[in-house]
Structures are given as C-alpha cells and as structure tokens.
Amino acid sequence: MLVLAVEGKNTVRNAAKHWICWKVKDFLIQEPTLGARALQKKLKEHHKVSIPYHRVYKGQQLALK
To answer: For the chain, how many structural domains are there in total?
Structure first.
C-alpha cells in the first residue's frame, strides 16, 4: 500500500487502517497492552509518519481481532 504525506503537513491522511494493522501487529505481539497513543509514537519513530490518533486506534482494534 502506498502511504503519502500531505505536502506542507506532517500528517499522513491516506494510511489505511489495514496498513496500520499490518505495521502494529509486531509491536502488539511483543507488548499486547500498548495503547493507541504509544503505537502512534512507535509508528512515528519507525516509519517517520504521523498518523491521526483515531486511525491508529481503528488499526489497533483490527490487529487485536
């Protein structure tokens, strides 16, 4: 999946919850109690993208199913 940043902003708008789910699964396997805010920080550290909290939360819920 292609993830593009909005020019002039540091936020990624078209990172789908399925992409987020795929990326956070490894973090959740290591530590299943991570919250959406912590996952948001980890995505920023590892993939250099800022993703809105709500989208990270939806991806987290999908990964926990």
So the answer is: 1
